[in-house]
Amino acid sequence: MRTGQDMSLLETPRLKLVSLTLGIVEAVIDGRREDAEALVGARMPERWPNRELVERAFSASLHAIRANPDACLWGGRVLIARGERGERDSRVLGSVIFHGKPGDDGIAEIAYGVEEASQGQGYATEAVAACVRWALSQADVRAVQAVTFGWHRASLRVIEKVGMRRVGVREHETMGPLLVFERRA
User: Fold this and answer.
1) pLDDT tens per residue, range 59-83
2) Residue 2 pLDDT > 70
3) Residue 115 domain-assigned?
4) φ and ψ at 172, to 5 degrees?
5) Helix or strand holding residue 65 (H, E)
């Protein structure tokens, strides 16, 4: 059953997926680690996130995000590992973002990243699967797409595990072909 744009907390067996807000993005870009940690309710990794990562992750500028956060941050989540000793032990592992609210074509493009020390443990697959399910439950979404390079084995494995199928190729202006994958509602 399809729902509205419900951005409540998503949970998986090992993760809390907290909605990405303008306040979180601004705190990260401004280098206000303590504020970012307070907003997400978890410790941030030492080297993550940083301004460069945020600028690469979002297709919109900070100015555009500020002008329309609901559209630009649509569906974005911060991955938080459930702490073994409670909330004080919770830590940020990465993020799942969409490249804005889907347009008239109903396609939501997803991207994700997990900080280096937490890679290879299935967190990306767990988070992406939950976010794809959420996106496909939204009334205005017909498909979720992911784009990656053919050499990026870890990303390809996540895409495969969440049930996406290759539907095309897109050219990157400097790095060559990107493979396009999709899962339909």
Assistant:
1) 778 888 999 999 999 999 999 998 7
2) no
3) yes
4) -90, 135
5) helix 62-67
Q: What pairing do the DSSP bridges indicate for beta strands 107-114 and 143-149?
A: parallel
How many residues are present in the chain? Answer: 185
According to DSSP, the residues that pair with 79 across neighbouring strands are 17, 94
Question: What pTM was estimated for this model as a whole?
Answer: 0.89
Of 100, 44, 113, nearest in space to 69 by CA: 100
Which residues constitute the domain of residue 130? 10-184
Whether residue 165 lies inside any domain: the answer is: yes
What whole-number distance in Å separates Cα of residue 59 and Cα of residue 31? 20
Say if 69 falls within a structural domain: yes
Q: What is the pLDDT of residues 106-117, one digit of tens each?
A: 999 999 999 988
Phi-psi region of 31 (alpha: psi -120 to 50; beta: other; left: phi over 0): left
Amino acid residing at 184: R
Cα–Cα distance for residue pair 100/3, rounded to 1 Å: 18
How many domains, the chain? 1
Q: Is 76 inside a domain boundary?
A: yes
Q: Which two tokens stand for residue 118?
A: 């937490």
Q: What is the CATH number of the domain that holds 90?
A: 3.40.630.30
